[in-house]
Design goal:
Two copies of one chain form a homodimer. By secondary structure, chain A is α/β, with parallel strands linked by helices. The first copy, chain A, folds into three domains: 44 residues, lambda repressor-like DNA-binding domains (434 Repressor (Amino-terminal Domain), Orthogonal Bundle), CATH 1.10.260; 130 residues, Rossmann fold (3-Layer(aba) Sandwich), CATH 3.40.50.2300; 148 residues, Response regulator (Rossmann fold), CATH 3.40.50.2300. In chain A, 43% of the residues lie in helices and 17% in strands. Chain A binds a DNA duplex through helix 2 and helix 4.
DNA sequence: ACCGTCTTATAAATCGATTTACGTAAAACG
DNA sequence: CGTTTTACGTAAATCGATTTATAAGACGGT
């Protein structure tokens, strides 16, 4: 209610009997200041509840102690988990985060990034909504350091953090193969993204190396209701039906789960299921879902580390960091026979 | 890579042959400007990819087109869903959001709010981590409009958005009572928060009015593993055991689900379950979970509306908005007999 | 006592957009 | 035709923190 103007550095300076430059130096630990004076300044600042005006500070220095984050959606726990991880990483280094979502739309992504850049942030962490990341020109025009996460097709002059999708998917497939499964079904929400396609390839490789037939790959979309219809043909033909399913995203996992229920298929008795991304509901579910866990916390920390490195040396080379996933084996997968050994088959 | 200084309003002005004041007026639609001149200015601005420097703008005007959001956690889909809703609401009005999490800790909450306020945001939306909201003094000292969400005990001079917790819980209880359940168990992660206690009261009222025994109320905490041990005594005594459970938060729902599984209890055959908060996994789960859905999107929009109202008239009275929840009836609850009619019993 | 060296504080310039105060030209009016 | 109003531009002041250039002391060495 006290609408009075907030106290300024000038107020502190006057009250402490020094110049604003001195106050600035004390509060920013910038230059040597007489300890006694510093003490007095700090005390006065505390007394007056002085809070620096970031706008003024930023205007002068040109950079804001803020990192901008743009993700495709704030309703997806993978992205918000990542944001949480970044926030933990930047905490304590005095940085704040501004976040924005592109709603999976390139035009919005571009608009949101432009808006973020007008803050002149220290850096930008973005999970692009497509592999091409067409809004990249904005970022290298502005000169702000950028780190891309999770999506991005080609090798570029952009720092990048991701997960080894191929290996993760192989791990899931090998797990099922080890349980004697011969026909696998791969379910993706969409095959637009390179990371999803890499996961497909991982499964394909695993099967190929085991001398098993290639998996069926289906796109199930984002709406749970239609998934049973899409999956039915693959799961019903009694003879040659898939006995193991790998769902490549958490929404695909949800889709498969509800489809199995609607189709009257029991997990894991009729089909085994490996999901992607690991959430609390997966352990509470009946049965608990075997899932590939992406190391969100590491991803967030790594993104911040890479960003800091770019901030420190803007001319330096772009780096890319790739993390491994872990398979959390639970009860949604079961053994249906001895694993086939390659040399016997071949 | 082009580390060259970004283009400034002065650049645009020179190139368009006008003063910076005119550019400012054109771009901010502030004062009448000759249409032809305006067109030229706009074109030059576009050509140069001019982006306003928010720091400078903010320094001059004193206010930033930004709303600060502080929530207890970014790992909880309830809070991130709320943030998503607020973002949708402020989109298009030219506002950005800065977000921060207090990790459920009062000291951190205070620190984060102070940090947010140094941006001199247009307003602050906060989901306090306790009912007392001790960091409130910061906000009314700074003069920034504040809207509290979800938590807050007493009636105060602070605008406030929430859900009718009591009615929501009554709805859940009445649903179970209508299905013939006589002994209900209420599971909360914690009873610290007033909104949770209100939910308890709602259940109690519903049972009292139906002439049924009061519910057992248990705190199950945040760790899934211990829930079975806590719940076992309430669910095992064959004679008088609870047949219906109301879980007051989504984590409590998860806890109950995994406890039921570990205890060998089938849902809904052995126990019926009503959860709180409604997420995608609840419809994919087997069985799909009956749950109380909080209107997150309305909550977000309302918080923004209230904030705007405070921004427009800082002296005005605080308002409070209360929304109703909806019960999504699915398959985790079943009828175990005719509902008891009060007059027959009484 | 004098000069250089070193330390520490200060006044003033600066960042870029907004806004005030004022000027000029065209339009409206009697 | 002279005067007043209106419309639209501009120069300059301003917001608050940082930083540069400079001054003022303190100290040691000769």
């Amino acid at each position: 209610m006290v609408s009075r103007r907030a106290t300024t550095m000038r107020d502190v300076a006057i009250r402490a009997g020094v110049s604003t430059a001195t106050v600035s130096n004390v509060l920013g630990n910038r230059k040597a200041v007489d300890p006694e004076l510093a003490r007095r300044v700090r005390q006065v600042a505390a007394e007056l509840d002085y809070q620096i005006d970031r706008a003024a500070s930023q205007l002068r220095t040109g950079r804001a102690a803020v990192v901008a984050i743009v993700v495709p959606s704030l309703d997806n726990p993978f992205f918000t988990g990542f944001i949480a991880a970044v926030e933990r990483a930047v905490q304590g280094e005095g940085y704040d985060i501004i976040v924005s979502s592109s709603n999976g739309d390139e035009a919005q992504e571009r608009a949101r990034i432009a808006a973020m850049l007008s803050w002149r942030p220290s850096g930008l962490i973005v999970v692009p909504c497509t592999d091409a990341f067409p809004a990249r020109d904005l970022t290298d025009f502005s000169g702000a350091p950028v780190v891309a996460v999770d999506r991005i097709a080609g090798a570029d002059a952009i720092s990048h953090v991701s997960v080894n999708n191929r290996a993760a998917a192989r791990m899931a497939a090998d797990h099922l193969i080890g349980f004697g499964h011969r026909h696998l079904l791969v379910c993706a929400s969409s095959l637009q993204l390179a990371n999803i396609r890499e996961r497909c390839e991982g499964v394909q490789q695993a099967l190929a190396e085991a001398g098993l037939p290639a998996p069926s790959i289906v796109e199930v979309g984002q709406t749970l209701e239609v998934v049973p219809t899409i999956l039915a043909p693959h799961l019903s033909s009694a003879e040659d039906r898939a006995t193991g399913i790998i769902a490549l995203t958490s929404t695909a996992t949800l889709g498969v789960l509800s489809a199995a229920r609607d189709l009257g298929l029991a997990v894991p008795d009729d089909v085994s299921l490996v999901g992607f991304d690991d959430y609390a509901w997966m352990t509470a579910s009946t049965p608990p879902i075997t899932a590939v866990r992406q190391p969100l916390d590491m991803l967030g920390r790594a993104a911040w580390d890479l960003l800091k490195r770019r901030m420190a040396s803007p001319g330096g080379a772009a780096e890319r960091l790739v993390f491994s996933c872990r398979l959390e084996v639970r009860r949604s997968t079961r053994s249906i026979g001895p694993p086939l050994v390659k040399c016997i088959i071949g």
